[in-house]
Design goal:
- This protein is of the alpha/beta class.
- About 40% of the residues lie in helices and about 15% in strands.
- The strands form two sheets. It has a five-stranded parallel sheet with strand order 7-6-5-8-9. A four-stranded parallel sheet has the order 2-1-3-4, sandwiched between helices.
- The radius of gyration is 19 Å and the shape is globular.
Length: about 290
């Protein structure tokens, strides 16, 4: 049994194992390995992509889901007691909750895997799935230059984590004062956008918090078609949904071939199935 809470807990071998298992699942080399297993899902009503792919992924593999709002965990009862009872009845917990500490508290007392479907601190399933798809598009994915444009948040945090594990080159571009850690081999901060788009292979964005939705910020840091033309040949733009057209990304760049397309997220289903199977310590041949 393995929890899946943060990408910094993984090794390069762990990620390679997940990617290989995802390849097998996509090829149909699996059976209903979750037959007879039940999962508690804690998801808000606003979750669309992550919830659909987890629910569908579990049911395709023969498992069952019981859905709760994440607020169910925000009560006086100690989480150690909550998960103490869940240990008796279910086979895993998949949770989307603002507090990463809630997930850690559950995991500390759980005898079943706890899978982080998003917190305000990180979003590990989303980022490992994105990198899996980039790998299918660009087999030399570990040699590329990744440029994240925007203020720090859970998406950037997980990109930093996976960059450290896999030795990726990750550039962070944002207004001054937004550096999230010391410069190093796998993370460098810059305030000038155009200079760092030159030589970039993968451009990453996230939704802008309200305080960054200003004309000055958008004018300086929005990814548009003209700016994407500064990147390397074959470069791609991967905006994390929900993205806001004409804020962090322009309308014209979203209509261009730089945008990876909505189909880019198709593999989220298969990657999350691999995460569940691996967390349970199963193999797809079972």
């Amino acid at each position: 049994m393995n929890h899946f809470l943060s990408l910094k807990d993984l090794t390069q071998e762990d990620i390679s194992e997940l990617f290989n298992m995802t390849d097998q699942i996509k090829n149909g080399d699996f059976t209903r390995v979750l037959e007879g297993k039940t999962f508690a899902l804690f998801f808000p009503n606003t979750s669309i992509r992550t919830r659909i792919t987890f629910e569908k992924g579990i049911k395709e593999l023969g498992g069952e889901c019981i859905l709760f709002p994440p607020e169910s965990l925000n009560k006086k009862e100690k989480l150690s007691d909550v998960v103490g009872y869940l240990n008796q009845w279910i086979d895993g917990v998949i949770i989307r909750h603002p507090s990463f500490e809630v997930m850690n508290d559950l995991a500390e007392h759980a005898e079943i895997p706890i899978i982080n479907a998003m917190s305000s601190e990180n979003h590990p399933c989303e980022i490992v799935a994105d990198l899996y798809t980039i790998r299918t598009m660009k087999p030399n994915f570990q040699e590329l230059t990744y440029t994240f444009v925007g203020p720090p948040g859970n998406i950037l945090n997980s990109w930093i984590e996976i960059a450290k594990v896999l030795g990726l080159t990750l550039q962070h571009v944002c207004s001054p004062g937004n550096r999230v850690c010391m410069d190093g081999q796998n993370y460098q901060f810059w305030a000038e956008l155009e200079d760092k788009l030159v030589g970039s292979d993968v451009v990453l964005t996230d939704s802008l918090p309200p305080e960054y939705q200003t004309d000055d910020y958008i004018k300086k840091y929005q990814i548009n078609l003209e700016r994407m033309r500064l990147t390397n040949p074959g470069a791609i733009l991967n905006p994390c949904p929900p993205f806001d057209r004409n804020q962090e990304v322009s309308e014209n760049v979203m209509q261009s071939d730089y945008f990876v397309g909505h189909y880019f997220k198709k593999n989220l289903l298969y990657v999350q199935q691999a995460i569940i199977i691996r967390s349970l310590g199963l193999s797809i041949e079972n």
